[in-house]
Specification:
The chain is α+β, with helices and mostly antiparallel strands and about 475 residues long. It folds into three domains: about 170 residues, PAS domain (Beta-Lactamase, 2-Layer Sandwich); about 90 residues, Helix Hairpins; about 140 residues, 2-Layer Sandwich (Heat Shock Protein 90). Strand 9 and strand 10 form a beta hairpin. Helix 1 packs parallel to helix 2. The longest helix has about 60 residues.
């Protein structure tokens, strides 16, 4: 979980985004600076070359004859070469579309097209090119007579020189930009962390508050500061928390009233039901003895059965009320589980329909009355829903310091959509199981008794068919 938060958490994404923006800004600035500096360096080199060449030509050209010969042009090129000094240019001169004449052997190696352009030009031309993989600059300077500035004289002076020094300056700029970008990116980590911390502080408070509410602390509120979107979110959270607290309080009050009503009704019904049960019992005995007519006997039997069911429902409601009120208590005793199980089955005449597999001498400290209720509810439920000829298997075993008891029937099993609700109150089987004749409280009471012992009760469908209820109890309840 921690690793996932580090790699994909909001804090990491904010820091990474901040650093990427800083890096992109640094690289963009460096690229623009490099481009402008490169252009400025090359432009300055070109301007200086043209200015120096024009000055030298202006001082030497007047000494040339009106129609210079090749020797005159070579002499001019030689003088200009010597005047170049540290610039170390190579000069050539041409007259009237003639071949450029150099003072040092072959010509300076002019770029293609420059001669044609220079023959028609009246101002200096410059062109950058590469020779032998090295950058160079070529300058073509048409010589214009002083007395006729708008008319070319036909004399063109060419000069070429290396741009290696300027290229090295540009390379140094690139290295400096690269070296400067890394510290900028690293330095951006500090404000990125601070900004992420500031942004995420309200988010962390909101998460802590949500976790507190998830544990049931509905009084949780967060401190809202500022007027941004996070502040609006915090205000919305506080409003939601207040609404939930009010709704929860209302629901608790309604639930408490409902439980009190059920307990009061059950208590009030208990006394008249006891009298009704006694009377219907006597009448049922008379009907069984044949003292009453057939129709009367049938009616008395029906009333007696329904009265007993109603009395049983009232007792179940009373039991549930005690669990809800926290008044249920354990009366622990050292018991033999096998003996208790046999007594439970014998009391209800189920021993012929239930197979029991319990090791001899399996003892535990439990409440015998409550465990009898659990076993009776589980077994009766299995017999009712096992279908015609139902057979139930009960098996007990020990695992470490816990007692595990399973009740397995041979019926169609429990519908998948019913499994999560089998221990809910007043839940009865659907069409996947035979319709229950009980109150729907038996399994809920069994689950409550299991929890009261510190154990659990679970329901599932067996791969072999039928439903399986698993009761797990500590051998020594805490």
């Amino acid at each position: 979980m921690r690793r996932r938060l580090l790699t994909s958490g909001l804090r990491t994404r904010l820091v990474v985004t901040f650093v990427l923006v800083a890096a992109l800004s640094a690289l963009t600035t460096a690229a623009l600076t490099f481009q402008q500096a490169r252009t400025a360096i090359l432009a300055r080199a070109q301007d200086n070359a043209v200015r120096d060449l024009r000055a030298q030509v202006a001082s030497l050209a007047p000494d040339l004859p009106a129609r210079p010969t090749e020797a005159d042009l070579r002499g001019l090129a030689l003088q200009l070469d010597r005047a170049g000094g540290a610039r170390d240019w190579r000069v050539a001169a041409a007259y009237r579309h003639g071949t450029p004449v150099s003072a040092r052997g072959p010509g300076p190696g002019l770029p293609a097209g420059l001669e044609d352009r220079a023959a028609r030009a009246t101002t200096a031309l410059v062109q950058r090119y590469h020779r032998d993989g090295r950058p160079r600059l070529a300058v073509a300077l048409p010589v214009v007579p002083a007395d006729h500035p708008g008319r070319p004289s036909g004399l063109v002076v060419y000069a070429t020189f290396s741009l290696t020094a300027q290229e090295q300056d540009v390379t140094s700029l690139v290295r400096a930009a690269r070296a400067g970008a890394l510290p900028v990116v690293l330095a951006s980590l500090i404000p990125a962390l601070l900004a992420a911390r500031r942004v995420l502080r309200p988010v962390r408070r909101l998460r802590s508050a949500a976790e507190s509410m998830a544990t049931g602390d509905l009084d949780t509120r967060i401190e809202v500061t500022g007027h941004d979107e996070l502040a609006d979110l915090g205000g919305a959270f506080n409003t939601m928390a207040a609404t939930l607290q009010e709704d929860a309080a209302t629901l608790r009050a309604m639930e408490a009233r409902a439980r009190r009503f059920a307990a009061d009704v059950s208590h009030e019904l208990r006394t008249p039901l006891a009298a009704m049960t006694a009377v219907t019992g006597l009448l049922d005995d008379d009907a069984a003895a044949g003292h009453l007519g057939p129709e009367t006997s049938e009616a008395i039997t029906l009333v007696a059965d329904e009265t007993r069911k109603l009395a049983h429902l009232v007792e179940d409601l009373m039991e549930i009320s005690r669990f809800d009120a926290g008044a249920a208590r354990l009366d622990l005793d050292e018991i033999d589980l096998g003996e208790l199980l046999h007594k439970t089955l014998a009391l209800r005449h189920w021993q012929d329909r239930v197979t029991v597999d319990v090791p001899g001498g399996l003892r535990a400290r439990l409440d015998p009355r409550r465990i009898d209720v659990v076993l009776a509810n589980l077994t009766g439920n299995a017999l009712r829903h096992g279908g015609p000829g139902a057979r139930v298997r009960i098996r007990a075993r020990t695992e470490a310091d816990r007692l595990v008891l399973t009740v397995h029937d041979n019926g169609p099993g429990i519908a998948e959509d019913m499994l999560p609700h089998v221990f809910d109150r007043f839940t009865k089987g659907d069409t996947a199981r035979t319709r229950s004749e009980g109150s729907g409280l038996g399994l809920a009471i069994a689950a409550e008794n299991a929890r009261l012992h510190g154990g659990t009760l679970a329901a599932a469908n067996s791969p072999e068919g039928g439903a399986v209820f698993t009761l797990t109890l500590p051998r020594e309840p805490a």
